[in-house]
Specification:
Blueprint (H helix, E strand, L loop, with lengths): L1 E3 L2 E3 L1 H42 L5
Antiparallel strand pairs: 1-2
């Protein structure tokens, strides 16, 4: 039994709770990573367009 805020929790509850928190962190990280990747791809695409067509800038 784990004690937290003067309440006792069984180990399986603590394990599932920690797994849920970890899953939330991972999904948040993958979300921010996909945004970063999209911004970087857009940046590369604009650089490519500008290199091909200097008048575009």
């Amino acid at each position: 039994m784990f004690k937290f805020n003067n309440k006792k929790y069984p180990p399986i509850f603590v394990k599932s709770f920690l797994e849920e928190r970890l899953q939330e962190q991972v999904s948040a990280c993958s979300f921010f990573y996909s945004i970063q990747l999209a911004l970087f791809t857009q940046f590369l695409f604009e650089m490519f367009i500008t290199a091909l067509n200097p008048d575009h800038a």
